[in-house]
């Protein structure tokens, strides 16, 4: 066709690093996939049973439910999170069920970000925030978390990565429409402290900015750290959209059930986008998530709670991976939460700086390609999680996912032990 086919909103966002690196890994034999963020083990038994009941019970669950969410699900989300956020949440006005947290984010950007609006994004960031801002016509404004040097003898930790208050304040202008918060952060695993959240909240209120907070990993917090929802801080419920994910909450990423919680003054605009795009999410998956939350509400805070047991198990997986990576000279940054950790590859960058690849290709991308081909391990380069001008500051980090079962971790150990033997003089 002679006419331009691609909509201008897609200019510059057509490359997807996930497709590239997954394809590379699939082309090599026996690669251990530690790049993609999904569990490779069964969900909790109660969630599987809830789904089985949903597909074999009430035949009407094969049909449409209410467009903005299956009523038992919106009701339990309102009850469950209302207590956590200190709000009276109306299931009809303050809850929207979406096709995963990804759908929640897209709906929020489309509903609130207009042509020329500025959106502040903390980097490193989950990689969809920038293209979603651009597709809505907005302008991304980046502010970087920066690491403090660790104390002598202490390992690097995501808690040492901080926003500079003066730099952060400078990013807010009269054109700022939204601030994107991700805690626990992907890819870094940082859990924002109350003090840090209070700083963000103060700036959002001062400049009349909406906060879109991605909290899909809120139950995966380690080492005694505490997840705090910014919507629970004084004055923030009225200007915050809180996004969650059943996929990350119950280890069912393929169900693609997410939600947004917020004031009706914001939510009504998201509902307009939702009803004119997705319209409706899979009823049976919603029913299973509702039943799973009902179970967790009964067990909340008790040793029998999945939200208590799961992070304990995953912390052991995290610690296993940290020790294994350290054995070959990689330097993990210990995460406070999430599925992920990043590891410093500076020593390798110094020893073998001239890996194959394009001259302008960030080092971490070349290193991951080399590692896939030569070591049988897949990770994701951290430069994919930052803006192009700042890639040079992050190109000595790669991201691993540690939410994997024991056979996968043992396979990783075998690859790393072979690598370690090759490094021996």
From TrEMBL:
Residue stretches making up the Aminotransferase class I/classII large domain: 30-406
Q: What are the protein's GO molecular function terms?
A: cysteine-S-conjugate beta-lyase activity; glutamine-phenylpyruvate transaminase activity; kynurenine-oxoglutarate transaminase activity; protein homodimerization activity; pyridoxal phosphate binding
EC code: 2.6.1.64, 2.6.1.7, 4.4.1.13
**Location in or out of the cell:** Cytoplasm, Cytosol
Pathway it works in: Amino-acid degradation; L-kynurenine degradation; kynurenate from L-kynurenine: step 1/2
- Which cofactor is recorded for it? pyridoxal 5'-phosphate
Where it mainly occurs, coarsely classed, is cytoplasm
Q: Which domain of life is it from?
A: Eukaryota
The record's InterPro entries line, in alphabetical order, gives:
Aminotransferase_I/II_large, Kynurenine-oxoglutarate_AT, PyrdxlP-dep_Trfase, PyrdxlP-dep_Trfase_major, PyrdxlP-dep_Trfase_small
- GO biological process assignments: kynurenine metabolic process; response to bacterium
Q: Tell me which UniProt keywords the record has, alphabetically.
A: Aminotransferase, Cytoplasm, Lyase, Pyridoxal phosphate, Transferase
Which ranges form a coiled coil?
Answer: none
Has keyword Transcription regulation? no
Do the record's keywords include Methyltransferase? Answer: no
Its UniProt entry gives the catalysed reaction(s) as: 3-phenylpyruvate + L-glutamine = 2-oxoglutaramate + L-phenylalanine; an S-substituted L-cysteine + H2O = a thiol + pyruvate + NH4(+); L-kynurenine + 2-oxoglutarate = kynurenate + L-glutamate + H2O
Q: Which Pfam families is this protein grouped with?
A: Aminotran_1_2
Instruction: Give me the Gene Ontology terms describing cellular component.
Output: cytosol; mitochondrion
Q: Which family does it belong to?
A: Belongs to the class-I pyridoxal-phosphate-dependent aminotransferase family.
What binding partners and quaternary form does the record give?
A: Homodimer.
This one is known as: Kynurenine--oxoglutarate transaminase 1
**What gene codes for this chain?**
KYAT1
């Amino acid at each position: 066709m002679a006419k331009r086919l691609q909509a201008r909103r897609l200019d510059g966002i057509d490359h997807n690093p996930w497709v590239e690196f997954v394809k590379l890994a699939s082309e090599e034999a026996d690669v251990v996939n530690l790049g993609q963020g999904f569990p490779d083990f069964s969900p909790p038994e109660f969630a599987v049973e809830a789904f089985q009941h949903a597909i074999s019970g009430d035949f009407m669950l094969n049909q449409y439910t209410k467009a903005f969410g299956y009523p038992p699900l919106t009701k339990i989300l309102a009850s469950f999170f209302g207590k956590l956020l200190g709000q009276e949440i109306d299931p009809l006005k303050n809850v929207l069920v979406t096709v995963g947290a990804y759908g929640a984010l897209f709906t929020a950007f489309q509903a609130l970000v207009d042509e020329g609006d500025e959106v502040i994004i903390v980097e490193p960031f989950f990689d969809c925030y920038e293209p979603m801002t651009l597709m809505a016509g907005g302008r991304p404004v980046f502010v970087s978390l920066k690491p403090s040097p660790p104390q002598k003898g202490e390992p690097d930790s995501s808690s040492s990565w901080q926003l500079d208050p003066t730099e952060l304040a400078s990013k807010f202008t009269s054109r700022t429409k939204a601030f994107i918060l991700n805690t626990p952060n992907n890819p870094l695993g940082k859990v924002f402290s109350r003090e840090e959240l209070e700083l963000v909240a103060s700036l959002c209120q001062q400049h009349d900015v909406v906060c879109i907070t991605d909290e899909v990993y809120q139950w995966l917090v380690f080492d005694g750290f505490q997840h705090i929802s910014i919507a629970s801080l004084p004055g923030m419920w009225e200007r915050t959209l809180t996004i969650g994910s059943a996929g990350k909450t119950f280890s069912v990423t393929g169900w693609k059930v997410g939600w947004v919680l917020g004031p009706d003054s914001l939510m009504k605009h998201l509902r307009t986008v939702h009803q004119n795009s997705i319209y409706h999410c899979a009823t049976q998956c919603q029913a299973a998530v509702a039943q799973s939350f009902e179970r967790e509400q009964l067990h909340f805070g008790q040793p029998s709670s999945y939200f208590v047991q799961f992070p304990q198990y995953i912390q052991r997986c995290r610690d296993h991976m940290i020790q294994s990576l350290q054995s070959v000279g990689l330097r993990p940054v210990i995460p406070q939460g999430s599925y992920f950790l990043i590891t410093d590859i500076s020593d390798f960058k110094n020893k073998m700086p001239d890996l194959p690849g394009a001259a302008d290709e960030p080092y971490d991308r070349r290193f991951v390609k080399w590692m896939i081909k030569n070591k049988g391990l897949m990770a994701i380069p951290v430069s994919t999680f930052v803006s192009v001008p700042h890639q040079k500051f992050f190109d000595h980090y790669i991201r691993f996912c540690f939410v994997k079962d024991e056979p996968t971790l043992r396979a990783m150990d075998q690859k790393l032990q072979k690598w370690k033997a090759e490094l021996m003089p």
